Amino acid sequence: MSTPQEIHHAPLQNRIIQLDILRGFALLGIFVVNIEIMNCVFMNQDAFSQQWTSSLDRLMVRIQQLFFYGKFFPIFSLLFGIGISIQWMSLKRKGISIAFFYRRMGALFLFGVAHILFLWSGDVIHIYALMGLGTLLFVQWTPKQLLILALIVFLFPFYGLLFEWIVSGIGYQAERYLEAYTSESIVTTIREGTYFEGMQLRIQEYKSNVNVLLVSLMPIAFTMFILGLTIGKKGWLHDIPTWICRIKKPILWMAVLSNLYRLFFLFFLWETDIWSAPIWRSIFIYAMHLCDTLMALFMVWLVAYGYQYSFWKKLLSPLQYAGRMALTNYLLQSLIGLFIFSSLGLGWYQTLSPSQTMGLAIMVFTAQVFFSKIWLHFFKYGPLEWVWRCISYGKVLAIKKS
């Protein structure tokens, strides 16, 4: 039997299928959320959603609130942090220069910028690139130090105030970037405008959502990155079934308590008098973000736990193909969304109901799973994964399977 030290330092010899499955699982969840935003920008969401009153659509909205919103971005961030830990240990073992990481994160940042300009304003991978570089500052820390850092970042409650202080100091006014657009002009631009007009709208929409990125997404992303780095450094990836069983009781308690609050928040809190008080409302919303992230960790555990049983293993295994091509599939989802909703294709912007977008997301993702399996039958990597890998290593690598 290996000692803990041997487990910690032993290299991972093969791909970890559970991680690929979780990436595929996260891709599905992210697309279910993203397609809603592609169908209607944040600015128009409230007015647009009021028209869908059928029982099916209201059920879909509740399902999205309970199981999708705020859950899959943390999962993807956790997996990215785990990936950094695996790469870091591999580079140390092979003696590869730290320049590998700078090239890798730099290329990912450019992918993200291109995503915003050419496809969709809701990109997150440029944030991953920046957070990935930030994570490098802590790769030498012990797992205990990393866990303490993750808790501090996760529980710090004043990101909104910090953002307001920073933007007031530099004079940044996010709300003014969409002043030139009305709800009607946004619909017209996306459905009937030129590609260049759509690009201009995407840029302005991105600028207007900077507060969401800095206040809501970046802290969660960084927390999950650090937690993923901690998992890698502790060697849990070498014996996933063991640590899955060890944390079973605390993770179940965490799921029960966080979901009790989430149910209270979604179904009862909005009707109470205390919700109208701004200070309490901010506290309740902050607590909801924390509980959504805890729910995301429970979902990671649940998928890993289910994989130990033959039925769930068979059901979950196809997700690995989409997960192995996560970058390609993530950007492909935006390309498909651009075709479905804009003047470049079907022009269905603000025409689909919540049940229709949910069904469409599942159909598109299912097609991506089949496409990824066929592609990986002939090639070692997805097309964008290959480009990213070549840039990271600074040389052209073989892509075809021998």
From TrEMBL:
Protein origin, superkingdom: Bacteria
Keywords carried by this UniProt record: Membrane, Transmembrane, Transmembrane helix
InterPro entries in alphabetical order: Bact_Transport_Assoc (IPR052529), DUF418 (IPR007349)
Positions of transmembrane segments: 21-44, 66-86, 107-131, 146-167, 210-231, 251-271, 283-307, 327-348, 360-379
Keyword Transmembrane helix: yes
A Pfam family reported for this protein in Swiss-Prot or TrEMBL: DUF418
The UniProt record lists the keyword Transmembrane helix: yes
Residue stretches making up the DUF418 domain: 232-395
PANTHER family per the UniProt record, alphabetical: HYPOTHETICAL MEMBRANE SPANNING PROTEIN, INNER MEMBRANE PROTEIN
Protein name: DUF418 domain-containing protein
